[in-house]
């Protein structure tokens, strides 16, 4: 945000959920009895109703870091918008992202469970690589799985070839 202010760039974007100023503005918006009409647009099709956005422009003092690394308090204008359409889009995107991430974890677990090793030293080396303690591949540093906890263990298994049993 410091660079925006330095160069005088006006930017309209969503403030991430993790920012304290967003939580402050959301709380402020809930306290308002009704926000004024900010924008009204016709529907995208003839059968669709008018789209309306209610909101208000608010000045807040926030910590801003400039290009030199100095942190100062600056007045920044935020537009608080009540938008059920936007909330619905965000909820759908969040649910889709969550499902995609769960699928990636399940796929990763499946690949880890499907690995077979000739002996205990090979399995322990694979576990070390999995945790980021072993050698990387093709001269690169190892990349451990960092996003979720996946528990694993070494299980001894004796596999007999069916041809050996018949002979």
Description:
With 167 residues, the protein is α+β, with helices and mostly antiparallel strands. The chain has 2 domains: 81 residues, no CATH class; 53 residues, no CATH class. 38% of the residues lie in helices and 19% in strands. A 3-stranded antiparallel β-sheet has the order 1-2-3. A hairpin with a 5-residue loop joins strand 2 and strand 3. The longest helix is centred in the middle third of the chain and has 30 residues. The radius of gyration is 27 Å and the shape is elongated. The mean pLDDT is 76.
Keywords, please?
single chain; 167 residues; alpha+beta; 2 domains; three-stranded antiparallel β-sheet
Summarize the SSE layout with pairings:
Blueprint: H1 2-7, H2 20-31, E1 37-41, E2 51-65, E3 71-82, H3 84-113, H4 120-130, H5 162-166
Antiparallel strand pairs: 1-2, 2-3
Question: How would you summarize what this structure contains?
Answer:
This protein is α+β, with helices and mostly antiparallel strands and 167 residues long. It has helices at 2-7, 20-31, 84-113, 120-130, 162-166; strands at residues 37-41, 51-65, 71-82.
What is the straight-line distance between the termini? 75 Å
- Mean of residue pLDDT? 76
The number of strands is 3
Order of helices and strands: HHEEEHHH
Spatial order of the strands forming the largest sheet: 1-2-3
Main β sheet profile: 3 strands, antiparallel
Helix and strand content put the structural class at alpha+beta
The radius of gyration is 27 Å
The helix content is: 25-40%
Name the beta content range.
15-25%
The stretches of 5 or more residues where confidence is low (pLDDT under 50) are: none
- The backbone outline, from C-alpha atoms, is elongated
Number of domains: 2
Number of helices: 5
